[in-house]
Specification:
The protein starts with a strand and ends with a helix. The strands form three sheets. Strands 1, 4, 5, 6, 7, 8, 9 and 10 form an eight-stranded mixed β-sheet that branches. A two-stranded antiparallel ribbon has the order 2-3. Strands 11-12 form a two-stranded antiparallel sheet. The radius of gyration is 18 Å and the shape is globular. The chain has one domain: Rossmann fold. With 217 residues, the protein is of the alpha/beta class. A hairpin with a 4-residue loop joins strand 2 and strand 3.
Length: 217
C-alpha cells in the first residue's frame, strides 16, 4: 500500500490540522467542521494527481483548445457520521462523482470485542471503478478493512481503492497492508505516534464525530 503523508511538506494544511487538534479552538463546532472540509479539499486535490487524464477539446470565447481532464470520475464513499464534513470537502473537488454511504462503528466495549457493525450500506455499483473511501481517522484499520472487504464482496470489485484520512496511525496502516489484497493507496494529513487502550489515535484530536456534532449516547 502506497501512503502519502502531506504533512511531510509544509503547507496551509498545517494550519487546519493545528486548529482541529487544539482544545482551545476545536470546541467551536462550526470551525471544526469547516477545517475538516478544507482538509478534504486539499487531500482530494493531492489524490487527483494520481488519476488518469485524457485530452478534451473545449471552446473558449476566442478559439478551441485541447485540455487534460480526469478520464473517469471516482465513486466517493463516506463513513458515517464523523466523515460527513470531511466528505463534503472531497465532494467539492469531485463535484460530478457518484457517492455512497456506510454506517460503520465499533461495539462500545472495545476491550472485549473488536466487532465492527456495518448495518447500513448505500452505494452504487463499484465493479471496475476507482473508489474513494473518506474517513477522518484511520486508527486500528479494522473498520476500514471490513468496509473494503464488504464492498468488494457484495457491491463489485473496484479497480482501485483510494483512502482519505485526516490523521492515521501506524498500526492501522500496517493492518491494511497485511489484510487488503486490492490495489490500495492512502492520502492523509498526518501520521501520529500510536493508539491508546481505547484505540484512539495519540496525540490525535479526540472523537471527530462528537467534536463535529456533539456527544452521543
Amino acid at each position: 500500500m502506497k501512503t502519502h503523508n502531506i504533512s511531510k511538506n509544509n503547507s496551509v494544511a498545517n494550519n487546519f490540522l493545528a486548529e482541529i487538534r487544539d482544545v482551545k479552538i476545536q470546541s467551536d463546532r462550526l470551525r471544526f467542521r469547516k477545517n475538516l472540509s478544507r482538509l478534504g479539499e486539499i487531500l482530494a486535490y493531492e489524490m487527483s494527481k494520481s488519476f488518469d487524464f485524457t485530452k478534451k477539446e473545449i471552446e473558449t470565447p476566442l478559439k478551441n483548445m485541447a485540455v487534460e481532464v480526469i478520464e473517469e470520475q471516482p465513486i466517493l464513499i463516506s463513513i458515517l457520521r464523523a466523515g460527513m464534513p470531511f466528505f463534503e470537502g472531497v465532494q467539492q473537488v469531485f463535484d460530478h462523482a457518484d457517492a455512497g454511504f456506510i454506517g460503520a462503528f465499533r461495539e462500545k466495549d472495545f476491550s472485549s470485542s473488536n466487532k465492527i457493525d456495518l448495518s447500513y450500506v448505500a452505494v452504487p455499483d463499484l465493479d471496475g471503478k476507482t473508489v474513494v473511501i473518506v474517513d477522518p481517522m484511520l486508527a486500528t484499520g479494522q473498520s476500514m478493512a471490513d468496509t473494503i472487504n464488504k464492498l468488494s464482496e457484495e457491491y463489485g470489485k473496484p479497480k482501485k481503492v483510494c483512502l482519505l484520512a485526516v490523521i492515521a496511525a501506524p498500526k492501522g496502516i500496517t493492518y491494511l497492508e497485511k489484510t487488503i489484497q486490492l490495489p490500495i493507496e492512502l492520502w492523509c494529513g498526518a501520521i501520529d505516534d500510536s493508539l491508546n487502550d481505547k484505540a484512539y489515535i495519540v496525540p490525535g484530536l479526540g472523537d471527530a464525530g462528537d467534536l463535529a456534532y456533539g456527544p452521543k449516547q
